[in-house]
Known about the structure:
Elements: H1 2-7, H2 9-41, E1 46-51, E2 56-66, E3 82-87, H3 91-94, E4 98-102, E5 106-110, E6 115-118, E7 126-129, E8 134-135, E9 138-139, H4 144-165
Antiparallel strand pairs: 1-2, 1-5, 2-3, 3-4, 6-7, 8-9
Amino acid sequence: xxxxxxxxxxxxxxxxxxxxxxxxxxxxxxxxxxxxxxxxxxxxxxxxxxxxxxxxxxxxxxxxxxxxxxxxxxxxxxxxxxxxxxxxxxxxxxxxxxxxxxxxxxxxxxxxxxxxxxxxxxxxxxxxxxxxxxxxxxxxxxxxxxxxxxxxxxxxxxxxxxxxxx
Length: 166
């Protein structure tokens, strides 16, 4: 053992061990960042939820959880059910971004192909259906093929105005 310490071989092995542990920790951290960021880069589909009272919610199902029942006595505990947190956006209309919906209140969930989500700088995301785009009273949208080019031109124009105001 004294000879290993004199030659320094033990410290080389300890340094290698420390390097190996560090690489494993960095790889684990990168893996956690990747897993937790997938919701940001790949948002979920837009759901149209029809409730039993014939009202609708449109948005992304953000999370699902079991309803906490710890405060109820055993005799009053109903069967276990879950609730969904829906990101409904449109804060300018509703005043809040999220809504909780119990699974008992849901009649059906569909994922309409023509529903859109637009990220806005104010009032949260916009969720809805695009009927037309009007600029100065003139209708600029008439078919689905034109949507992307019109939106890109509007976004670049607005970005130019925003940069000019800075």
